[in-house]
Amino acid sequence: MANIGIGGALLIFVIALIVFGPKKLPELGRAVGSTLREFKQSTKGIMDDDHDKEK
């Protein structure tokens, strides 16, 4: 995802704005953020469990 660049990110944003509309975009952003937060916490929990088993 680091290879997208500013132009590609802007294009994705414009397409998302056209498809979902300006009212739905903040809701989608919140949903994606909460999903990533939950995923990060889950993976951290798994890593902590693996680290505890090694001891």
From TrEMBL:
GO terms for biological process: intracellular protein transport; protein transport by the Tat complex. InterPro entries: TatA/B/E (IPR003369), TatA/E (IPR006312). The chain crosses the membrane at residues 6-22. Gene3D superfamilies: 1.20.5.3310. One of its GO terms (cellular component) is TAT protein transport complex. Keywords: Cell membrane, Membrane, Protein transport, Translocation, Transmembrane, Transmembrane helix, Transport. It holds the Pfam family TatA_B_E. It is a single-pass membrane protein. GO terms for molecular function: protein transmembrane transporter activity. The keyword DNA-binding does not apply. It is found in: Cell membrane; Membrane. Part of the twin-arginine translocation (Tat) system that transports large folded proteins containing a characteristic twin-arginine motif in their signal peptide across membranes. TatA could form the protein-conducting channel of the Tat system. Part of the twin-arginine translocation (Tat) system that transports large folded proteins containing a characteristic twin-arginine motif in their signal peptide across the thylakoid membrane. Involved in delta pH-dependent protein transport required for chloroplast development, especially thylakoid membrane formation. TATC and TATB mediate precursor recognition, whereas TATA facilitates translocation. PANTHER family: SEC-INDEPENDENT PROTEIN TRANSLOCASE PROTEIN TATA, CHLOROPLASTIC. Belongs to the TatA/E family. Forms a complex with TatC. This is Sec-independent protein translocase protein TatA.
